[in-house]
């Protein structure tokens, strides 16, 4: 009987030691993961490096040469809640994901649609906004065009920005048309205004705003309606659970407070900011 009791005590001691070892290892793993997180590095460094590209009204320069826009407001608020300063790193859209992956910046805050192909390379937060593709056309070269079918012809030229979901949407919904791609939307818009393109596809609200600014030349064939809808999220390097958790909860809080909705309404449903830009 004594032998059995002694054996039981010994087994219990071994199990306790094993459990303590496992707990210690788990704590070490958690500590290592926390130290490896971009969130930890950002706080130690004191700045949040933000990758973005200019899209009106997501991000653009004002008359002083400073960046303003919906995404700029979002980035500044996010950095403030992290207790750090934002550092803006303007990047060509076509190379923005590779730049993130090579560590040029910590996060993409640039109106990036959450797409399965992109998600293979980066992790996305929950959506903090939603957008959609719209089309604006020239009255002289595309008179009376009212539907996507009217533009889906080899004789029609559609302008869009390279590497964007706008370019993909144009190819998907108007596969017969000639799609011309440009490095930025200003070039695509110029192509439309000079009548070298019948229409331009871009994220809402750019087409709507351009139709207002150039009402003598441009119009909205789909009555201002978008023909796609897509969620917009923060993009970060894969495998960073801590950073992703923080971003997801930040979005939930800002939505609950109504802050994201208020900023969206200012930048997307008004032109009150127009006199600030060049």
Automatic annotation (TrEMBL):
Q: Can you give the residue ranges of the Solute-binding protein family 3/N-terminal domain?
A: 47-271
Q: Name one GO molecular function term.
A: ligand-gated monoatomic ion channel activity
Which SMART domains has this protein been placed in? PBPb, PBPe
Where does the protein end up? Cell envelope
Do you know which InterPro entries this protein is assigned to? Iontro_rcpt_C, SBP_3_CS, Solute-binding_3/MltF_N
One GO CC term on file: membrane
Tell me where in this chain the Ionotropic glutamate receptor C-terminal domain is found: 49-270
Q: Does the keyword field hold Signal?
A: yes
User: Gene3D superfamilies recorded for this chain?
Assistant: Periplasmic binding protein-like II
Give the family, as the similarity comment puts it: Belongs to the bacterial solute-binding protein 3 family.
Identify this protein by name: Extracellular solute-binding protein family 3
* Species assigned in the record: Desulfohalobium retbaense (strain ATCC 49708 / DSM 5692 / JCM 16813 / HR100)
């Amino acid at each position: 009987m004594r032998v059995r009791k002694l054996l039981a005590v010994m087994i219990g001691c071994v199990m306790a030691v094993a459990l303590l070892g496992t707990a210690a290892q788990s704590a070490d793993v958690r500590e290592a993961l926390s130290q490896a997180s971009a969130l930890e590095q950002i706080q130690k460094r004191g700045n949040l490096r933000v990758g973005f590209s200019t899209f009106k009204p997501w991000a653009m320069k004002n008359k002083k040469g400073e960046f303003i826009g919906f995404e700029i407001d979002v980035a500044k608020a996010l950095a403030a809640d992290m207790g750090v300063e934002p550092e803006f790193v303007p990047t060509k859209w076509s190379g923005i994901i590779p730049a993130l992956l090579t560590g040029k910046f910590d996060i993409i805050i640039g109106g990036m649609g959450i797409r399965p192909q992109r998600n293979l390379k980066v992790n996305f937060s929950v959506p903090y906004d939603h957008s959609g593709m719209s089309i604006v056309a020239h009255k002289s070269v595309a008179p009376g065009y009212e539907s996507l079918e009217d533009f889906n012809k080899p004789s029609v030229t559609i302008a869009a920005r390279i590497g964007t979901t706008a370019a993909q949407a144009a190819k998907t919904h108007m596969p017969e048309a000639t799609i011309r791609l440009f490095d930025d939307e200003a070039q695509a818009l110029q192509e439309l205004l000079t009548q070298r393109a019948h229409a331009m596809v871009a994220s809402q609200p750019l087409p709507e705003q351009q139709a207002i600014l150039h009402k003598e030349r441009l119009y909205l064939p789909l009555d201002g309606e978008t023909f796609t809808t897509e969620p917009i999220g923060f993009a970060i390097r894969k495998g960073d659970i801590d950073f992703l958790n923080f971003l997801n909860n930040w979005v939930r809080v800002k939505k609950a407070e109504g802050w994201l909705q208020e900023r969206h309404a200012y930048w997307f449903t008004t032109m009150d900011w127009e006199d600030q830009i060049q």
